Amino acid sequence: MRPTTSRYPLIWRVLDGLEAAAARLWPRRFTRATPVLMLAPSLLLVLLLVIGLVELGDSSLRELDTSTFRLSATWTGANYLKIATSGLYWTVIWKSLFGALVVTALSLILAFPYAYMMVRTRSGLLRKLLLVALFLPFFIGQVVRAYGWLIILGNQGVVNDLLGLVGVAPVRLLYNYPAVLFGLVQYMLPFAVLMLAPALTAIPAELEAAAASLGANWVKTLTRVVLPLARPGLIGAGLVVLTLTLTDFAMPAILGGGSQDFIANAIYDQFFRTSDQGLGSALALVLVAIGSLLVGAVFTLFGAGTLAMGRQR
Amino acid sequence: MTKSLPFAPLSRRHFLVGTAALGGLAAAGISTRVFAEEPAKPAEIIVRAWGGSWMDALKAGVSDPFTAATGIAVRHDLTEDNEIQPKLWAAIDQGRVPPIHVNWDTTTNATKSALKGYAVDLSDLSNLAGTLDTSKPVGLDGYPIVNTYGYVYVLAYRPSAFPDGAPTSLQVLLDPKFKGRIGLYNDGIGFHFPAQVAGGGKLEDIPANMQPAWDFITKVKAQAPLLGEDPDFTTWFQNGEIDLAVTISTNAREAKKNGIDIAWTVPEEGATYDTDGLWVPKGLPENELYWAKAYVNFALSKDAQQVWCDGLGLPGVVAGLTPPADLVGDPSYPTKPEDLAKLIRIAPQVQVEHESEWFGKFKEIMQG
Questions:
Q1: Given this chain, do its domains B12-150+275-325 and B152-274+334-367 carry the same CATH topology?
Q2: What is the pLDDT at residue A131?
Q3: Is the pLDDT of residue B4 over 50?
Q4: Residue A306: its pLDDT value, please?
């Protein structure tokens, strides 16, 4: 004789109930639409982004009338012309772009050995220490970290105090371009390591052992085996660091001493300092365009399978 | 959501009666009770303010006494003046109730809102009768802003770096000894006009020809100045990063109060004199508008001005105020016409119209 359903474990009955409720809410005939339903939140977010971009596009084509502080009723390309003909914006764009490339390169160079050590070490303690050191900065915001550097690198900071002990006069370590890049590399390093670690984990250690058994030294193993296989992680990490750096605001503002602005700082100035929403919008779209072009260039250079998407199983 | 009005709109006469009565009673130190004509009191009014010693002074001089007189709590919103502005504009554009009742703002910033037509006319405030001409915004109809005090962008310096006495001219900024040890505002505010004189130009040429200012600023750029906002100057002086700065006298005075070795002067080229003020955004419910205006009116009473401006170390707009003991005869505290003659005053409308261009040019030089 079959047992009654009341004798089933509670968890089974709960799951049965949930399944029945789900079947009522989303009947089986809707199954083909399930992927669309799951995509809906993402699509909604993308839609909101698109609406925002359209609004920015509209504002960017309207010039500010400083006698009334209202944007023009008709469209004009004056804001884009101003950006194209202004030395200030070319300087700011160049600083952002060059900074993003340098920070990306340095972050990847520094992140790779860190991630490799974290993945390959046989010491559980070392792995934990590396993980703690990696995650600790995430608990501290970017602004706090930047102020931390002010304390460490200031004229009366720790570094200058140490230099003073050996008779070196205080050196201006802050408020210049290298200081901004230094702060950005320190900020971006954990992102790069986190993106690289899964890619390195996916490379079987046996492949390196096989390469060594075939006579490859560690340099050859690294360049012929590990790096090519880690490419998806390197590209992914590079893209994340590149786009985050390109759009960064806090580090240039705090460590740059006001003279090392990136595009985000220029956008802030237009929206909040001079109240020129039109020019601010145009700068924002220029930033979006530069970021998109860079990402597009990476995909063009390294192919559609860059991030290991669509890989054959 | 727009709040509904629980009462009929106030007439101008009713407002004047209420405000005058409130001002009079408060000035006399008498706690007010509910007036017959008085609209419903909100639980609080929100006043945007600058933080630190700026807010402390407003609280002591205006907000606390206003609360004592009316029973209405005053909350200070410390959103930056530049950042509250787009929020206010968006709220008014969208027909929402503005997020603050009173904006304590620079006159230049406030003029932008007035030009947009987003500021309530305050011409009917009873205490305006006791104010000096400096309370009136230049070039605007009525009182969409009430200027509440003036301030000077002084040349602040570290006395230990000047053993032979205070610097007398802005040319000191070009002394190689001070390379990397100069602080300026990051948009150059307060510096453009004296730089015009220091560069050999004339103030009358502003805004048509400011090349002398840009030439001088280009020379200063070679001195690798630090660029920042108000709090940065105090930090830089405190940390020994700078010896010279063009900054508002209040910041220098506050730093001195905190034990930092600092003094200030008005150089022979002159120093920019500007004003801050209070304004009330449009779109408030009628009763809240009434009490927001009452707050501004209260801020113009002599007692409130005395305490508020003492705290700031700045000259108010009401006749007969007593300067703080440490600022008697100080060039940053002009009290007589001849004091003001040494200072540079450019109409807010000219500043508003050209601000973007001047900030852009300054940044172009400094970012290069």
A1: yes
A2: 92
A3: no
A4: 59
Band of residue A243 on the pLDDT scale cut at 50, 70, 90:
very high
pLDDT at B2 over 90: no
Residue B178 to residue B158: CA distance in whole angstroms? 11
| Contact residues, chain B, for A87 at CB < 8 Å | 364, 368
Check whether A6 has a pLDDT greater than 80: no
Please answer yes or no on whether A272 and B227 come within 8 Å at the CB atom.
no
**A→B interface, C-beta within 8 Å:** 64, 66-70, 86-88, 91-92, 95, 154-156, 170, 172, 175, 257-261, 269, 271-277, 279
Residue whose tokens read 């009191």: B41
DSSP state of A73: S
What are residue B151's DSSP bridge partners? B274
Q: Give the tokens for residue A289.
A: 């365009």
Instruction: Report pLDDT for A138.
Output: 80
Q: Residue range B198-218: average pLDDT?
A: 97
Q: Which of A86, A257, A271 sits opposite B86 (nearest CB)?
A: A271
Q: CATH no. for residue A151?
A: 1.10.3720.10
ipTM for the predicted complex: 0.80
Q: Which of residues 208-247 of B touch A (CB under 8 A)?
A: 226-228, 239-241
Domain B152-274+334-367 in this protein, CATH class: alpha beta
Give a yes or no: residue A20 inside a domain: no
pLDDT of residue A304: 59
Superfamily covering domain B12-150+275-325: Periplasmic binding protein-like II (3.40.190.10)
Assess B116–A contact: CB distance below 8 Å, yes or no: yes
Is position A30 within any domain? no
Put simply, the answer to whether A66 touches B239 (Cβ < 8 Å) is no
Question: Cα–Cα distance between A189 and A55 in angstroms, integer?
Answer: 34
- Which distant-in-sequence residues (6+ apart) come within 8 Å of B140 by Cβ? B111, B114, B115, B349
Q: What element of type H or E holds B226?
A: strand B226-228
Contact B228 A271 (CB under 8 A): no
Q: pLDDT confidence of A311, banded at 50, 70, 90?
A: low
- Residue A222 placed within a domain: yes
Domain holding A100, by residue range, is 90-302
A34-60 vs A277-302: helix axis angle to the nearest 10? 130
Question: What does the pLDDT look like over B86-99, one tens digit per residue?
Answer: 999 999 999 999 99
Angle between helices A177-201 and A142-153 (to 10 degrees): 130
Residue A174 inside a domain? The answer is yes
**Residue B3 pLDDT exceeds 60:** no
Beta strands in chain A (DSSP E): 64-65, 70-71
Kindly list the distances between the CA atom of residue B101 and the CA atoms of B286, B296, B298, B309, B317, in Å, as whole numbers in the listed order: 11, 10, 14, 21, 22
- Measured between beta carbons, the chain B residues lying within 8 angstroms of A64 are 356
Write the single-letter amino acid at B98. Answer: P
Question: What does the domain layout of chain B look like in residue ranges?
Answer: 12-150+275-325, 152-274+334-367
Nearest-CA distance from B278 to chain A in Å? Answer: 19
Contact between A269 and B239 using a beta-carbon 8 Å cutoff: no
How many domains does chain A contain in total?
A: 1
The pair of structure tokens assigned to A112 is: 């790779």
Report the candidate in B356, B277, B288, B307 with the shortest Cα–Cα distance to residue B6. B288
Instruction: Using a cut of 0.95, tell me whether the model's pTM lies above it.
Output: no
Q: Which residues contact B214 (CB under 8 A, 6 or more apart)?
A: B199, B361, B365
Q: What is the pLDDT of residues B321-366, one digit of tens each?
A: 999 999 998 989 998 888 888 899 998 889 999 998 999 999 999 9
In this structure, what token pair is assigned to residue A128?
A: 């934990």
Distance, in Å, from the CA atom of B152 to the CA atom of B169, rounded to the nearest integer, reads 16
